[in-house]
Amino acid sequence: MPIYKTITVSPTTSVYIWKVTEPEEELSEGIVLTPHCQNRMDGMKSEAHRRAFLSIRHLLAITGYTDSDLFYDGAGKPHLKDGNHISITHSHNFTGIIVSQTDEVGIDIEMQRDKILRIAHKFTPIQEYRTLANTDAIIRKLTMVWGAKESLYKIYAQKGLSFLRHIDVMDFTFDDSRTVAEILYKGKKSHYDVEFLEFEGFTCAYALKLMGS
C-alpha cells in the first residue's frame, strides 16, 4: 500500500499523501463506492482519473472512513458526516487528503512546471518574483503561492472569490516552508496558516483556518 507520506499537523489534524502506482483492479479491491460515486467513476474516461479516485478512497480508509462517510455540498466542497473537516486533492500520480477534528482545512498538490509562468499574472503580482535567482526558483515559488491560494479557495468555497484580488499570501522564503494568508471578500476578513512540502517535482500546500477569523 503506497501511502507516500503522513504528516501530523497537530494532535487533531493530519495529512495523507498517496503515490498512485497500482493498476485499477488492485485499487478496486476492498473499496465499496456509493451509487453516486460509482456513477462518477463510471463516467471517467481516463484510467488515471479512476485510479486517483480509488486511491483517495484508500486514504479515507486509513483515516477510518468509507466512501459513504463523504458527501459534497452545492459548491462541490467535500464534508464528512461526523462533522470533521476534510479536503481532497490529486495531481498526476499523487493524491492527498487532510482531515481535522477541529479546523477548517484545505489541501492542494501541483506539479512544478513552466506553464505557471504564463498564468501567474492571473493570481499574483508577478513583478514581486523578479528578485529570485533563476527561472526554476520562480516556478517553485509561484507553484507554492498557487497551491496556497487553491487550498484557501477550497476552504472558502464561494463563487466570485478571486485568487488575485481577494486572497493575499504573505511573502516567505523557501527555508520557511510556511506562511500566513488572508482572504478579504465582501468586507469580511479571515486568516489562515499555510504549510508547504516539495517532493519529486511536486508541491503540496495545506491550510488551516485560524480560529475566530
Automatic annotation (TrEMBL):
UniProt KW Transferase keyword: yes
TM helices/strands, residue ranges: none
Xref: Pfam families: ACPS
Residues in 4'-phosphopantetheinyl transferase domain copies: 105-206
GO molecular function list: holo-[acyl-carrier-protein] synthase activity; magnesium ion binding
Record keywords, A-Z: Transferase
Listed InterPro entries: 4-PPantetheinyl_Trfase_dom, 4-PPantetheinyl_Trfase_dom_sf
Ligase listed as a keyword: no
Name of this chain's protein: 4-phosphopantetheinyl transferase
